[in-house]
Model the fold of this input.
Amino acid sequence: MVTGIAAIGAGLAAIGAGIGIGRIGGSALESMARQPEHSGMIQTNMIIAAALVEGVALFGVVVALLQG
Amino acid sequence: MERLFKVFSISFFIFLSFGLLASTSANDSTGSSSKETAELYNPVPDVMHHISDAHDWHFFTFRKGTADEWHFSIPLPVILITEGNLDVFLSSAFHHGHETVTKGDRVYSIDEHGHISEVSDKSILNFSITKNVASMLLAVLILFLILRKVAKSYRKNNGVPKGVQAFIEPLILFVRDDVAKPNIGHNYKKYLPYLLTLFFFILINNLLGLLPGAANVTGNIALTLVLSVFTMLITNFSGNKNYWGHIFNPLGSSMGWAAKAPLYLILLPIEVLGIFIKPVALMIRLFANMTAGHIVILSLLSLILMAQSGLGTGGAFGVAPVSVAFVLFMYLIELLVAFLQAYIFTLLTSLFIGLAIVEDH
Done:
């Protein structure tokens, strides 16, 4: 039970990243469809938000790496 | 195009089935179940060795595990300061950990993880040129040559840029116009050299780290720590009254001090911690992205070696095309991540600087 738990933690962090970035991408695409003339700005902000969410998920991965 | 796809998928299935058939027949012909009871190849130590720093630059090994093992590696200088004494020697003097090195009254030995220690436990300051330092110096040299060429041709050409300039100048303009100017405002010129250096340094080290046999420089947490310390120092030394006001007096004049005091008990520690946590997040983001990418690529390639130890050579041949296809896909993602992480680090740095120098509303 104890041996694989770091891997389970890393997997949960990946789920969190997937959900978060999926939502960001989804709403970015929706707003680009509504207002194509602002696509550039929307895309830039999407990348920023995705990197921030991914940073948090990577905290979890780093803890898993240290543990396992 | 369709025909290519057909050819590819048919040959893929032939490979896979050949591999599986060959592996089962190999097992039957040897007749023994020794393949099953033999240990499956564990990729973890080799993967960790590839992404860590070392005192020699190891490229590959011939005939590993046998008596005529032969390593192709470049030994790097070891520079140590122990109790005021400077000792410099090549890491080949250690003979991969089999021998100790004696300089004066100090005896150094290296363990299997590459840590150098002194026999009588004296404290050592280790300034060696390790694999990461050598790779970083190489990257700095490459950057210097490229950017000097761009600067010279910018001075000469007055028209359409050609050659290296045509590739680098759009990147420079991108950092200036889309990262520095919008986030910092009209004072951006003061910070532009730092932002450009940061962007190109991280980019070139990310890209160099993708080559086989290269050092994982930006995946070294000490390097990303230094970069984020620079960001923290620059941000906090440029902070104006507004910035410090927002940190130590976030609620401003909206309430009397009696109402603010209990709230500040919680708010102020969080704000002060925030000064440090933002650069720590920068550090961990870059380090984890790069290291995780390298680990995934190395693990997918290790699948071939695991198949060889579990299913025999035929199995390894069968797994190889699948593994290489996945690795190719991962490499494309890693190229994107290399650019993206350089951009994100630079963007967040300029965002923090911008927040620090914002004038009154």
